[in-house]
Amino acid sequence: MADPGMSVTPYWELTFDADGDVDGPERDRLLAQVTDQGVRDLIVFAHGWNNDRSGATRLYRSFFAPIPKLAPRARIGYVGVIWPSMRFCDEPIPDFPGSAPTLAAGPALDPDTRRTLLKTFPDRADVLDQLARMLDEQPGGDEGLAQFGQLVRQLVGTPQPLAAADTSQEGEPVAFSRDTATACEEFAHALTGARADFSLPNPWEGAKELLRQATYYTMKRRAGKVGEHGLGPFIGQLAHAAAGVRVHLVGHSFGGRLVAFALRGLPDGVRTVKSVTLLQGAFSHYAFAARLPQEPDTAGALKDRHQRIDGPLVCCYSHFDAALGTFYPLASRLGGDDNSLLGVDIAAVLGPEWGAMGHDGVQAVPGTAKLDLAAALNGALPGSGCVNVDASAVVHRGGPPAGAHSDIVHPELARVVLAAGRIA
After folding, report:
1. Which of 79, 260, 279, 392 could form a disulfide with 252 if both were Cys (CB 3.0 to 4.6 A apart)?
2. Which of 96-105, 178-187, 300-309 has the highest mean pLDDT?
3. Could you tell me which residues are beta bridge partners of residue 387?
């Protein structure tokens, strides 16, 4: 078992690489020990954007801490999923020491973020050097921004849009069919609105946000791959090795996408997953839809996969999540039409096709229940189907650009996980 300083026991960590391959010794240790430890309910948590194992473990330690007192008689085991994600180091995270208290001023890349980008894209050092230099120098005119956009394309490569997209509507987010200068202006206006400091938008701050969103889309695609090809098959192995263990999947941000796509990777006949709880899920709110309202012949990438859960799919969302309410839809439609959104309500103009789970919950799935947090915690949580829980009462702290996206360490949300899994 990992980390003797963990707040709960028994606790295991399960590490996956970018292709979804699991660390063999960690997997074998968990499979061998989970039954011997007398575990009946196994909570498996996947982090979102994150830079190292210690940061992920710190999240798990904090989130899991209240659970033993909330369910003192339950026989619970805990798993922290470790997968290669990243975040820009200048983003503040509530309650986490070492994260930036406020967003770094100006478009320049801070040294920690540069090192993280080099680790994430080790074969693109020359491209990263050019990107960093341009953010430092901020050359004038649209030509400089256009060159910056070309470098961002070189950094992240060309994604396969239909293989990893949550719906076909999302297309190829870093294709930039719209000109880079306009995209940077839109991001800059969104950042200025998030800060509410009445400063004039700097398109190079928008350029930095363009880089941030493009790298996050790399992580988004990776999360789906790790879930489908890594965690899903592992759950199948667990079902064979420990048939009586009930699995409860929890995911934050792209980790929500990871655990959701694990449902697509479950072997046939496996009914081990008893609940899934998404905390500010950073993927399309139409992912589970059989058909989209605006395009009836199109389905979500996870159509009907919530039916693989022997229990509810609970989606916690908050309108204070600026990362998903503002920047996610802007990034999602970079390959879309050329209409400018400067000076307008982004969410209202873009429409529901660009929405995220963590902003307004599961959409276009008939029978989806909708509750506020108080109702969910007072016995109203359904035992099956999709359930949207407005968690804005607790998920509301955080500075720009992410807003409250990472404000998830609350005992109320731990109680939602227990309620979703019927863990007494």
Report:
1. 279
2. 300-309
3. 314, 369
